[in-house]
């Protein structure tokens, strides 16, 4: 199995659509180039931010294959291949490996609410089906189920290619418990931009970032300052970004970040139903205010 350093910033890519609601390959290629040039450490297609639940199976496969092609080995591609059906997650993961993804990101099964035993066998079956690293994605607020630390530890012991977790439980205490239980040999990445610095301070490795879609270089610098132990500088940058981190969740992700990306020409302001444009105009105005602040810092990437 390829040894990958998962430290740093991994951008949870938006999925750009054309005005005719097809995947926009041109905009995706431009966005990936800007991300890599800005210094991110990895890219994550087909996650929550990428609207994966509303992509067809063919589109899902295509999005991962295009990302691998555009990245061309320069940074790791961590492909979102989770599902609430184990057989579907196995198929998606095998396809991701086949087209050259470096790792897969496996979200908790949603809606069916499995037990911890069910979660163990689900993730183990997927990991056993591929030879590339697997990262668990714990996000109870979206899926209705939490991967308990004991289950994470059991999976890390049983499967050599289950190497980390994206923790979006919102609980720093749980993140710390995973770090302690796995003795620092397991990658723990924050799924929340606002918790990335506290997590690194606790021994974590970085973040799978929503906000870095629009401010990749600035967020990469902040995270690397923290990884280097330069806490005062990292926290100063965090304070400058905190308003934008909050704005990214004024409505359901990826509505705010994709609206921000559309403002600067990186995509159309189009979503797949049931996702849609902002429900409340005051939320759009608040987002734009935070973007103006980032512009003043020189943090925004422009197309």
Overall description:
The chain has helices at 25-38, 57-71, 86-99, 116-129, 140-143, 149-158, 172-181, 196-201, 216-227, 231-247, 255-263, 281-297; strands at 8-12, 42-44, 78-80, 103-107, 134-138, 162-167, 187-190, 206-209. The protein is globular, with a radius of gyration of 18 Å. The longest helix is centred in the C-terminal third of the chain and has 17 residues, at 231-247. 49% of the residues are buried. The N and C termini lie far apart (37 Å). The chain has an 8-stranded parallel sheet. By secondary structure, the chain is of the alpha/beta class. It is built from 12 helices and 8 strands. The chain has one domain: TIM Barrel (Alpha-Beta Barrel). The protein is 47% helix and 12% strand. Helix 1 (25-38) links the parallel strand 1 (8-12) and strand 2.
């Amino acid at each position: 199995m390829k040894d990958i350093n998962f430290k740093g910033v991994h951008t949870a890519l938006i999925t750009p659509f054309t005005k005719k609601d097809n995947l926009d390959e041109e905009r995706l290629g431009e966005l990936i180039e800007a991300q890599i040039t800005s210094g991110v450490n990895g890219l994550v297609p087909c996650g929550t931010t990428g609207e994966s639940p509303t992509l067809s199976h063919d589109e899902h496969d295509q999005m991962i294959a295009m990302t691998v092609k555009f990245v061309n080995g320069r940074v790791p591609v961590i492909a979102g291949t989770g599902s609430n059906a184990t057989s579907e997650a196995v198929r998606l993961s095998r396809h991701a490996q086949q087209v050259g993804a470096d790792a897969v990101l496996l979200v908790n099964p949603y809606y069916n609410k499995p037990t911890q035993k069910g979660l163990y066998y689900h993730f183990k079956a997927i990991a056993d089906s591929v030879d590339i690293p697997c990262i668990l994605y714990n996000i109870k607020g979206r899926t209705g189920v939490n991967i308990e630390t004991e289950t994470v530890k059991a999976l890390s012991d049983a499967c050599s290619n289950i190497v980390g977790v994206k923790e979006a439980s919102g609980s720093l205490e749980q993140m710390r418990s995973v770090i302690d239980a796995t003795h620092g040999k397991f990658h723990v990445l924050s799924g929340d931009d606002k918790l990335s610095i506290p997590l690194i301070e606790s021994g974590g490795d970085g973040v799978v970032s929503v906000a870095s879609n629009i401010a990749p270089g600035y967020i990469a610098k902040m995270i690397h300052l923290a990884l280097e132990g330069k806490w005062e500088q990292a926290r100063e940058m965090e304070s400058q970004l905190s308003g934008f981190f909050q704005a990214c969740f004024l409505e359901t992700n990826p509505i705010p970040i994709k609206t921000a990306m559309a403002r600067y020409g990186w995509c159309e302001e189009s979503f797949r139903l049931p996702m849609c444009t902002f429900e409340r105009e005051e939320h759009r105005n608040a987002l734009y205010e935070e973007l103006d602040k980032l512009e003043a810092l020189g943090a925004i990437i422009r197309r």
